[in-house]
Amino acid sequence: MSEQAEHHPSATLSRVLAVLGDKAVGFHDRLGDDTVAIRPEHLVEVARTLKDDPHLLFDFLMDQTAVDWIEEEPRFELVYHLFSSKYFHRLRLKFRVPESDPSCDSLTPLWGSADWMEREIWDLYGIRFRGHPHLQRILLYDEFEGHPLRKDYPKDAAQPLFEPRYWGSREHEDPRKARGGDLKTL
Amino acid sequence: MALDPRLLRLRGGPAPTGDPALDAAIGESGGDFHDKVYTTRLDAVLGWSRKFSLFQYPFVTACCGMEYMAASANHYDTDRFGAALPRFSPRQSDMLMVVGTITHKQAPVLKRVYDQMCEPKWVVAVGACAVSGGFYQNYTSVPGCDKIIPVDVYVPGCPPRPETILDAIVKLQEKIQNQKHEFI
Fold first, then answer.
1. Structural domain includes residue B126
2. Contact A164 B108 (CB under 8 A)
3. Scanning every residue of chain A, which has its alpha carbon at the shortest distance from the alpha carbon of B103?
4. How many Cβ atoms are within 10 Å of A48's Cβ, its own excluded?
5. Which of A39, B51, B68, B180 is the most exposed, having the fewest neighbouring CB atoms within 10 Å of its CB?
6. CA Rg, chain B, in Å?
7. Residue B39 included in any domain
8. B108 part of contact set with chain A, CB < 8 Å
């Protein structure tokens, strides 16, 4: 649909492209989802523009997540979903960061909701957010090594906080054979 | 509440107890001593009393908790089995109901709750996740809470039917009745 020559982007997307100028390096509105691709170094500037522009007023960062495109470069894609509680329109922001330096600027100063979501992305994907007030793990425990939603993390590699134990009549069972793997898979 | 038949098992004709004072009391009772006095094993009477006063600690972590609430409410009525009152302090409970998925992050908490419970204590693992990890095999889930604490009764199902949970309580009661009990 969006590929048709006569198709015009929505009013929201047109306005976004107008205010961003050449900072928007790509866009589409497939399935009605207005999407803009930017460069990571422009993130804070772009976000502030989208938040403050009187015809956009994206005052709510609804969701923030990441995608691991393993074997592609740049590897990690960050996805932001913005919402305006005045105009009820939405926008998706995307950009990629390389595996060698998986980091970008924090949006916590602009939207408080970014705080926990950026901690979650750091926890599960290992992407650092510069300027985040306390970038610590939020779901997993501090002893956990690695970032489990990266595609190269073994899917069943658990990291128990203490050794599994057996009692009573089940003492003869070897916990390491409970699932046919070594202790790491328990 | 009818007396358990086990309590009556040793009731019958007078037999020497080995205790001279007790034998003398039986002799002086005019032959109806055993109509007035039940004799039994200490294990049996402790088990009988303990199995009907199960104070449960619901360690509810996941969706099985909804099923557990339905089972413990008045429609299914665990009160019939003496397991009526959930106690939200491990110190005041003797039956730990592990209801739902246990994560590795949560494992130390479960262990601590179990350690805080006073003896005697029993554990019921409710639901596939608590029994074996269920369909989770990943970096976060413990494959069965028996990796952390000893479990007495396993309740399968995802989630278990309320009848299954009631059956687990009955099974646990049988187990308690037949256990050796220390007089604490």
1. yes
2. no
3. A160
4. 13
5. B180
6. 21
7. no
8. yes
Residue B138 falls inside a structural domain: yes
Number of domain units in chain B: 1
pLDDT digits (tens, 9 = 90+) for B18-41: 777 777 776 666 666 666 677 777
Q: Which of B139, B141, B143 sits opposite A178 (nearest CB)?
A: B143
Distance linking the first and last C-alpha atoms of chain B: 25
CB B119 within 8 A of CB A137: no
- Taking the CA of residue B16 and the nearest CA in chain A, the distance in Å comes to 38
Checking ipTM against 0.90, whether it exceeds it is no
Which residues of chain B are within 8 Å of residue A170 when distances are taken between CB atoms?
146
User: pLDDT per residue over A79-126, tens digit each?
Assistant: 999 999 999 999 999 999 999 999 999 999 999 999 999 999 999 999
What type of residue is B153?
V
Residue B179 forms contact with A (CB below 8 Å): no
Whether B38 is in a domain gets the answer no
B142 touches chain A (CB under 8 A): yes
Token pair, residue B154, equals: 């396993």
Residue to mutate among B102, B103, B104, with most A CBs inside 10 A, is B104
Give the integer Cα–Cα distance in Å for B54 and B84: 8
Query: How far apart, in whole angstroms, are the C-alpha atoms of residue B151 and residue B96?
Result: 9
- The answer to whether B9 contacts chain A (CB < 8 Å) is no
The whole-angstrom distance between B143's CA and the closest CA on chain A is: 7
Place of tokens 């179990």: B114
DSSP letter for A133, please. T
B154's CB contacts (< 8 A; 6+ apart) are B125, B131
A153 and B139 within 8 Å at the Cβ level: the answer is: yes
In this complex, which of B108, B137, B139 lies closest to A159 when CB atoms are compared? B139
Domain housing B164: 52-178
Output b/e per residue, A3-13; b: 16+ Cβ within 10 A.
eeeeeeeeebb
CATH number where B74 lies: 3.40.50.12280
| Alpha-helical runs (H) found in A130-185 | none
